């Protein structure tokens, strides 16, 4: 392989017609360049959308009650019903493989409009949630000061609150101490024990304008009794919430005397299903990139094969001479295959390098203009590059195969006769 | 050295076949310098190609240095050509992007001889044909006579048992022809067996034996008094 004379000859042959070699190389260069750019663009889109999902636990569903649409066991249709706190325990007892079951209650947002929180002279309309401590795993946020709700708060019905940075900015002056102060939520005082910031860009400003209070204190303060507004349920890793969802909903139906075929009585949003849909979209984009890139690459390879055929044709006489002097057919074949692989590999690697430079350029541009919607950090993995290189070697072999065979098919005596 | 018995060869050309060699019986001893003569179409080139293992006979036997040359694979034939034979062509057939010394070293490369030894040997043979100072020149920078001398050096580099020359002077003027023949005679003087295909009488008479071919058969095979080419060379 590392035979000095052979390499010298490969270089001699390829450099004897620079322009032609460059044109041929460009085909492969372009193919691999397009492949890299497409894959990187797909990855950029994927990264962008993944950031929108943030680190929300994706194996999660949300569930709430609606009106029944079928009469059942003597109860009429159009009946309202509500989840109770006992339902949480019931789910925990009957459906295995669930990681978190968070009952939630809510003020503001889609259940109310005007200003509901007052502090001194400031007032604002915020979503106020009655929650269990687990919610921080399902709806991740960073606690920037103080602490989040804990189980002591739950057990002792403490009226404490964790507020978002958006709330803090509106209700407090700059630099003012927040922890230990009181805010009035619908007329009831809560002590602020922490502030949070959400990383996810999902919801944007609104996501920073939420207030979390202990579920029990919320129920007590706002007369919710045993009522649970909705639930966020996360399954264990390795178990799909989409599968467990049916068990949970059926359990709720039987607990609340809802007709088993009443599909509209319980509303839900299956985040995992949505996430999977997006995942398969990414897979689709990847495949399109690979297929398009491969086809472009194939046309480049055909170009190489074509040129190698012409080179072999031009060198027919020379090959005849070599064979008369005693070069074995296999050696000639090897020579042509190596020329082909070398040309493919060199131009392919140039393509990879230029692709990488282009990606670097795009990243620098993105960094300087700030984040772009649904596009972030386009990149290709080392694995893809290694894969592309091995594809190139195989492609070079394939491209050289036909010409190499045609080179030794001509008998030396005929080869010598050609002018 | 060469032993040929009842050699037949015909070429198919569409529906009719052309019988080129019609039973050649012929042997060459070690150290002979044989001219094969004949007009075009007499079969002399075909005979040389068969001797050179570039072509195969339809029937008959061919022994080279006691080795039967029969049913050779391409790889085997290439090996034998490399080991047993040196070719000198009418059109020199040098590889035009390689310089003189690289051309001469080529058969040695196929024998897997090391790079350094190859260079030394090639240079030695270039010196013998008087072209040592032209070693790094490309064929395009050499005259016809020089090219043929490089080709002769190349043919000899592998130290073959037989040199086969197909019209070695065909593309050269008479002065250069005599220089080349002088070189061939000197190589023969050292004991090498050489076959020269030619249609020029004066070239043929510079050999020691003349074989006349006509319509695929040997019509005459005689020993001749060798005319030394040296007397024509200044």
Key terms:
heterodimer; A: 419 residues; alpha+beta; 2 domains; two-stranded antiparallel ribbon; 13 helices; 53% helix; 17% strand; elongated; B: 234 residues; alpha/beta; Rossmann fold; 4-stranded antiparallel sheet; 7 helices; 28% strand
Distance between the termini of chain B: 34 Å
Biggest sheet descriptor of chain A: 12 strands, mixed
Class from helix and strand fractions of chain A: alpha+beta
Basic shape of chain B: globular
Structural notes for this entry:
The complex is a heterodimer of chains A (419) and B (234). In chain A, strands 1, 3, 4, 5, 6, 7, 8, 9, 10, 11, 13 and 14 form a twelve-stranded mixed sheet that branches. In chain A, strands 2-12 form a two-stranded antiparallel sheet. Chain A has 419 residues and is an alpha+beta fold. Chain A contains 13 helices and 14 strands. In chain A, helix 2 (18-53) packs across helix 11 (329-369) and helix 3 (85-94) crosses helix 8. Chain B is α/β, with parallel strands linked by helices and 234 residues long. Chain B has seven helices and ten strands. Chain B has a six-stranded mixed sheet with strand order 6-7-8-3-9-10, with helices on both faces. In chain B, strands 2-1-4-5 form a four-stranded antiparallel sheet, covered by helices on one side. The interface between A and B is medium-sized, with 22 and 25 residues.
How would you sum up this structure in a few lines?
The complex is a heterodimer of chains A (419) and B (234). Chain A has helices at 4-15, 18-53, 85-94, 135-138, 151-155, 165-171, 215-221, 241-255, 271-314, 316-324, 329-369, 382-409, 412-417, and strands spanning 60-65, 83-84, 98-107, 117-119, 122-124, 127-131, 142-146, 160-164, 182-185, 188-197, 210-214, 227-228, 230-235, 266-270.
């Amino acid at each position: 392989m590392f035979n000095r004379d052979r390499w010298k000859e490969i270089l001699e042959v390829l450099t004897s017609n620079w322009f032609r070699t460059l044109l041929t190389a460009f085909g492969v260069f372009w193919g691999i360049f397009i492949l890299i750019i497409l894959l990187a663009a797909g990855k950029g889109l994927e990264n962008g959308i993944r950031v929108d999902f943030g680190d929300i636990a994706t194996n999660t569903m949300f569930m709430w009650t609606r009106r029944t649409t079928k009469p059942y066991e003597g109860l009429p249709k159009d009946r309202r019903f509500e989840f109770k706190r006992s339902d949480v325990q019931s789910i925990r007892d009957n459906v295995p493989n669930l990681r978190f079951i968070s009952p939630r209650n809510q003020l503001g947002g889609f259940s109310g409009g005007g200003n509901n929180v007052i502090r001194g002279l400031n007032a604002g309309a915020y979503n106020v949630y009655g929650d269990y401590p687990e919610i921080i795993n399902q709806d991740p946020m960073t606690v920037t000061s103080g602490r989040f709700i804990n189980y002591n708060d739950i057990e002792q019905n403490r009226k404490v609150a964790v507020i978002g940075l958006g709330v803090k900015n509106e209700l407090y002056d700059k630099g003012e101490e927040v922890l230990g102060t009181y805010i009035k939520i619908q007329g009831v005082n809560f002590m602020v024990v922490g502030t949070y910031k959400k990383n996810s860009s999902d919801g944007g400003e609104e996501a920073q304008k939420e207030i979390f209070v202990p579920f029990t204190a919320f129920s007590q303060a706002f007369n919710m009794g045993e009522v649970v507004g909705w639930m966020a349920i996360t399954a264990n890793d390795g178990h799909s919430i989409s599968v467990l969802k049916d068990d949970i909903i059926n359990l709720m139906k039987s607990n609340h005397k809802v007709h088993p075929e009443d599909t509209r009585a319980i509303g839900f949003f299956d985040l995992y299903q949505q996430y999977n849909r997006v995942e398969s979209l990414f897979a689709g984009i990847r495949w399109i990139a690979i297929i398009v890139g491969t086809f472009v690459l194939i046309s480049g390879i055909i170009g190489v094969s074509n040129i190698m055929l012409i080179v072999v044709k031009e060198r027919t006489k020379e090959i005849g001479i070599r064979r008369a002097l005693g070069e074995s057919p296999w050696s000639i074949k090897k020579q042509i295959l190596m020329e082909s692989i070398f040309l493919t590999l060199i131009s392919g690697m140039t393509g990879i390098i230029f692709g990488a430079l282009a990606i670097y350029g795009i990243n620098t541009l993105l960094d300087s203009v700030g984040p772009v919607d649904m596009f972030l950090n386009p990149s290709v993995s080392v694995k893809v590059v290694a894969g592309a290189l091995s594809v190139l070697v195989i492609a070079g072999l394939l491209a050289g195969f036909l010409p190499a065979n045609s080179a030794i098919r001509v008998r030396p005596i005929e080869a010598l006769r050609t002018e | 050295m060469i032993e040929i018995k009842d050699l037949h060869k015909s070429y198919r050309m569409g529906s009719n076949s052309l019988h080129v060699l019609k039973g050649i019986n012929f042997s060459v001893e070690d150290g002979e310098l044989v001219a094969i003569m004949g007009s075009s179409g007499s079969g002399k080139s075909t005979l040389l190609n068969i001797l050179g293992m570039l072509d195969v006979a339809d029937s008959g036997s061919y022994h080279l240095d006691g080795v039967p040359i029969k049913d050779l694979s391409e790889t085997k034939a290439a090996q034998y050509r490399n080991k047993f034979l040196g070719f000198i062509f009418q059109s020199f057939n040098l590889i035009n992007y390689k310089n003189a010394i690289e051309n001469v070293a080529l058969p040695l490369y196929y024998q897997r001889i090391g790079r350094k030894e190859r260079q030394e040997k090639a240079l030695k043979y270039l010196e013998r044909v008087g072209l040592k100072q032209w070693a790094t020149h490309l064929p395009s920078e050499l005259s016809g006579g020089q090219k043929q001398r490089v080709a002769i050096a190349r043919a000899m580099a592998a130290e073959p048992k037989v040199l086969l020359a197909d019209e070695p002077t065909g593309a050269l003027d008479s002065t250069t022809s005599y220089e080349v023949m002088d070189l061939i005679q000197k190589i023969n003087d050292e004991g090498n067996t050489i076959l020269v295909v030619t249609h020029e009488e004066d070239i043929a008479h510079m050999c020691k034996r003349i074989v006349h071919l006509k319509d695929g058969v040997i019509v005459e095979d005689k020993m001749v008094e060798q005319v030394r080419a040296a007397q024509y060379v200044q």
